[in-house]
Design goal:
The chain is mainly alpha-helical and 95 residues long. It is built from 2 helices and no strands. Helix 1 packs antiparallel against helix 2.
Length: 95
C-alpha cells in the first residue's frame, strides 16, 4: 500500500468518526423534538383545542417518532461499523 492510499483510508475513518458524532447529536436533538411534540399532544387534550389542532399535534408526534427511529438506526449502524474501520486502519499502520 502506498502513502496516498493510507491517507485516503485515514481521511475516510476520520469522516466516519465525525459522522458518528453528528448522528449522536441528531438522535439527541430528535429525542428533544419528540418530547416537545408529546407535550403538544398533551396540550391539545384541553377542551379548547380544535380537531385540527389535535390532528396537527398527532401528525407532528408521529413524524418525530419516525425520525427518531431512523436516527437511532443510522447511529447504531455507524457505531457498529466504525470499530471495524478503525481496526482495519490499525492493521495497515502496523505494517
Amino acid at each position: 500500500m502506498d502513502g496516498r492510499a493510507f491517507g485516503v483510508y485515514w481521511e475516510f475513518v476520520e469522516r466516519e468518526r465525525r459522522r458518528v458524532a453528528e448522528l449522536e447529536e441528531r438522535v439527541q436533538e430528535t429525542d428533544r423534538r419528540c418530547c416537545e411534540a408529546w407535550f403538544q399532544v398533551m396540550a391539545m387534550g384541553q377542551e379548547d383545542a380544535t380537531a385540527a389542532d389535535k390532528e396537527e399535534a398527532g401528525a407532528l408526534l408521529n413524524h418525530t417518532i419516525e425520525e427518531l427511529e431512523a436516527a437511532k438506526i443510522a447511529l447504531e449502524s455507524a457505531q457498529r461499523r466504525l470499530p471495524l474501520y478503525e481496526q482495519t486502519l490499525r492493521q495497515y499502520t502496523a505494517t
